[in-house]
Prior knowledge:
The chain has 58 residues and is mostly helical. Helices cover 57% and strands 0% of the residues.
Amino acid sequence: MRRGVGSPPELSHGLARVQSSRALDYVREFNIALAPWRREPRVAELLHRTRTEFGIAA
């Protein structure tokens, strides 16, 4: 996986390990908790990645 400019390493490699439905539930809950900051560039990038890589709704 290729890291984007300015993205922390844990985002680049951490998402690849998410496989269980329980882990995906945690990612969904985390996305909901990040909603107030969704316009921040790094948060927007994370939310976009979770939607595209895991098919998680916005």
